[in-house]
């Protein structure tokens, strides 16, 4: 390696490390104020409408509206309750009638060894599916509710509130939250009932009656600095098309367009809220990633990813709003079941929960075809890692004729350079004639300049579809390829774990697959450049690209999913072999051309 090349690569490394350090420690943080509410008192007052005050009153022991004539005061203390289905184990608190744990039984979290926790980042001030009177800026109800476990799959919570009306009179109403579960469904139903007593004039706080929120965060936990292939997003669907917004850190924003359902999604899991009467909801969805400032542990101080959904003002009488809430895997089979009534417990049809899946846009049909091929191969070999290798080999060998044709076209271009230069010199003052003579020359030797673009375009299309498939395919989660090394194709491989993350980079694992990938990339680049023997003013630049780019990719792809890196590495190895064949064919073609000219 030349001295200039070594200096260039060394400086590139310094720049990369400096960039990660600068990004981690010196990028300005969002100064948005933490909008998670402080713990409220038993009396709830609204600043916007001081004449409409709400306070709690005692409740009776039945799951219905409390008797207004009762003078008996029941002393309530905080309790927890657990319901369990075949899909999840759910823990409730009667403080607010909220969920404080939602553990998926079929999907394990590699960090905890337990089921994936979908009600993560829970704090005393912020629980899952809590309700606040008014808009998204209001504190969640923190009072103790009366609870009643109706059966093994149904639980309810209720509390009565007094309200001071605008005319100075007082009225009361009861808030009831009822959760319904099905043993074999990832979705549950939440009914929110407001029933007013005598003189109740409704709930209207600047156009909203109450706001329901999702869990502060969905699992499994991830470190945004180290895992750049995981994120949290808002997906809003209006019945025809979806809008996806990837969350940025430590911010609170609103999405102000019509929506039928809304979801907060990760790579493999999601919480989706579908109001069965969408017209009752306000258009605005508030989403926040403001951190939980009162927590202590690293997991608890992780950035939130939470939605606030507001219900329009409620008039007098009794109102019940039903919400179907999907809490589960972001996979095709589970989400497609809600398109036909006979396939789900809640008889939903055509709600298109599958629109929350990650897709490749216009490349989705190709991705679907590749997925079908991958699944067919896996039925034969019963190992997703081997399936990736086989599918990659099939694709590379299928594309080899195009790659070979492009490479041999390059030889033809080199052979026709003298004639091309003669045409350019002869017709330098007549561009149209030069173009016509060039086209005539192409036709004589049987060369199509556009043919060289097709393999590159096709390769890029396949690469993009495979990237999305291998980066998001749910079946790779927890799928082992080589035990002890690649235990999970959805995460990076690992041979050793550090107790503390490395400074600047945030890495805490020793990984081998990225090293193998970089070595394969270096060898492929060397043989593509004909052994690195090119000369001229661009030689040093070409060497920097050949050696420097793999080094750059090493930093970018260090924490990439093992399935994705396995595809790229196998692709490089096969392509290296193909390049050796192509180099041999090109050498023979040049030799034959030289012999022909000498004859």
Q: How would you portray this structure in words?
A:
The chain is α+β, with helices and mostly antiparallel strands and 599 residues long. 32% of the residues lie in helices and 24% in strands. The protein has 10 helices and 22 strands. Strands 1, 2, 8, 9, 10, 11, 13, 14, 16, 17 and 20 form an 11-stranded antiparallel beta sheet that branches. A hairpin with an 8-residue loop joins β1 and β2 (53-57). α4 (384-415) runs antiparallel to α7.
Sheet having the most strands: 11 strands, antiparallel
The percent range for strand residues is 15-25%
Shape: elongated
Q: Helix fraction?
A: 25-40%
**Number of distinct helices:** 10
Radius of gyration: 31 Å
Low-confidence stretches: 1-9, 22-53, 56-73
Which whole number gives the mean pLDDT? 79
Report the count of strand segments. 22
Structural class: alpha+beta
Query: What is the distance, rounded to the nearest whole angstrom, between the alpha carbons of the first and last residues?
Result: 40 Å
Blueprint of the fold:
Blueprint: H1 3-25, E1 43-44, E2 53-57, E3 80-84, E4 88-93, E5 98-108, E6 115-117, E7 131-133, E8 146-151, E9 154-164, E10 170-180, E11 187-196, E12 203-213, E13 233-237, E14 242-246, E15 252-256, E16 261-265, E17 269-275, E18 281-288, E19 306-314, E20 318-329, H2 332-336, H3 364-381, H4 384-415, H5 417-426, H6 431-445, H7 453-472, E21 496-497, E22 509-510, H8 513-528, H9 539-556, H10 562-598
Antiparallel strand pairs: 1-2, 2-9, 3-4, 4-5, 5-6, 7-12, 8-9, 9-10, 10-11, 11-20, 12-19, 13-14, 13-16, 15-18, 16-17, 17-20, 18-19, 21-22
Helix pairs in contact: 1-9, 3-4, 3-7, 4-7, 4-10, 5-6, 8-9, 8-10
């Amino acid at each position: 390696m030349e001295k200039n090349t070594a200096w260039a690569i060394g400086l590139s490394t310094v720049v990369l490390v400096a960039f990660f350090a600068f990004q981690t420690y010196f990028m300005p943080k969002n100064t948005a104020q933490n909008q998670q509410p402080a713990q409220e008192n038993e009396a709830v007052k609204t600043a916007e409408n001081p004449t409409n005050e709400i306070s709690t009153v005692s409740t009776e022991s039945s799951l219905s509206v409390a008797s207004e004539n009762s003078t008996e005061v029941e002393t309530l203390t905080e309790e927890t309750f657990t319901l369990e289905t075949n899909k999840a184990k759910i823990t409730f608190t009667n403080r607010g009638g909220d969920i404080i744990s939602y553990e998926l039984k079929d999907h394990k979290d590699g960090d905890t060894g337990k089921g994936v926790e979908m009600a993560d980042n829970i704090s005393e001030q912020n629980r899952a599916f809590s309700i606040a009177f008014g808009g998204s800026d209001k504190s969640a109800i923190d009072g103790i509710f009366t609870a009643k476990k109706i059966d093994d799959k149904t639980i309810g919570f209720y509390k009565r509130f007094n309200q001071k009306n605008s005319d100075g009179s007082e009225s009361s109403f009861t808030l009831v939250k009822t959760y319904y579960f099905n043993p074999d469904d990832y979705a549950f139903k939440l009914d929110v009932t407001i029933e007013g007593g005598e003189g109740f004039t409704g709930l209207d706080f600047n156009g909203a009656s109450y706001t329901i929120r999702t869990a502060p965060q969905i699992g499994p936990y991830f470190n945004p600095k180290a895992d750049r292939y995981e994120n949290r997003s808002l997906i809003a669907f209006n019945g025809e098309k979806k809008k996806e917004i990837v969350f940025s850190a430590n911010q609170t924003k609103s999405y102000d367009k019509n929506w039928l359902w809304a979801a907060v999604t990760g790579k493999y899991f999601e919480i989706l809220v579908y109001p069965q009467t969408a017209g009752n909801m306000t258009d605005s969805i508030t989403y926040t990633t403001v951190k939980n400032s009162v927590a202590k542990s690293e997991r608890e101080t992780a950035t939130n990813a939470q939605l606030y959904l507001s219900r329009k003002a409620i008039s007098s009488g009794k109102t019940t709003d039903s919400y179907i809430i999907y809490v589960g895997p972001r996979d095709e089979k589970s989400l497609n079941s809600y398109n036909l009534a006979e396939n789900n417990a809640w008889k939903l049809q055509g709600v298109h929960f599958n629109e929350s899946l990650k897709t490749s846009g216009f490349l989705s049909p190709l991705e679907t075809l590749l997925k079908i091929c991958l699944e067919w191969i896996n039925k034969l070999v019963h190992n997703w890692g081997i399936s990736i290798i086989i599918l990659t080999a099939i694709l590379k060998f299928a594309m080899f004729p195009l790659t070979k044709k492009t490479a041999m076209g390059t030889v033809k271009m080199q052979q026709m350079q003298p004639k091309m230069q003669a045409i350019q010199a002869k017709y330098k003052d007549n561009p149209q004639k030069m173009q016509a003579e060039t086209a005539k020359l192409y036709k004589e030797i049987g060369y199509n300049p556009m043919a060289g673009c097709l393999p590159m375009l096709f390769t890029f299309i396949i690469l993009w579809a495979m990237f999305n498939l291998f980066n998001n395919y749910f079946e790779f989660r927890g799928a082992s390829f080589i035990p002890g090394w690649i235990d999970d194709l959805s995460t990076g491989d690992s041979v050793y774990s550090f107790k503390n993350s490395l400074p600047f980079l945030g890495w805490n694992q020793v990984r081998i697959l990225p090293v193998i990938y970089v070595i394969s990339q270096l060898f492929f680049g060397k043989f593509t450049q004909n052994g690195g023997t090119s000369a001229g003013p661009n030689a040093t630049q070409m060497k920097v690209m050949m050696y420097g780019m793999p080094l750059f990719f090493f930093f970018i792809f260090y924490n990439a999913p093992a399935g994705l890196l396995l595809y790229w590495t196998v692709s490089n190895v096969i392509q290296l072999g193909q390049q050796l064949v192509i180099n041999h064919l090109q050498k023979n073609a040049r030799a034959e051309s030289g012999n022909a000219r000498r004859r």
